[in-house]
Amino acid sequence: MAPNGPAPPRGSAAAAASLRRRRPTAGSSAAGAASGTMLQFYTDDAPGLKISPNTVLVMSIGFIAFVAILHVMGKLYFARREA
Questions:
Q1: pLDDT single digits (tens) 2-50
Q2: Which Gene Ontology cellular component annotation is one that this UniProt entry carries (predicted)?
Q3: Residue 38 contacts residue 48 (beta carbons within 8 Å)
Q4: What letter does residue 41 receive in the DSSP assignment?
């Protein structure tokens, strides 16, 4: 409930505005909890492969380049086959 009277009806612009005002204060504790769980991926105790972010970046760019090369090779092969 709003401190100055009854709450605005659901779906109204006033209700949306009050939610926008309240969300940063209510979400700050949830964001802190989520960052605590994200830090578990970067600890030495986390199970699985230990790969640096740079390695992941290089591997993903390499995969994108590989798929692009395959597309170009497929287009060239299809164009030669029709001619």
A1: 456 676 667 677 666 655 555 445 445 555 555 566 666 666 776 778 8
A2: Sec61 translocon complex
A3: no
A4: G
Q: What is the DSSP letter of 72?
A: H
Nearest partner of 19 among 4, 7, 36, 30, judged by Cα:
7
Alpha helices for the chain (secondary structure H): 13-38, 53-82
What the block records as the tokens of 59 is 């591997």
Higher pLDDT, 51 or 3: 51
Span between the terminal Cα atoms of the chain, in Å: 74
| pTM for this model (two decimals) | 0.45
Tell me the C-alpha distance between 58 and 65, whole Å. Answer: 10
Three-state secondary-structure class, residue 45: coil
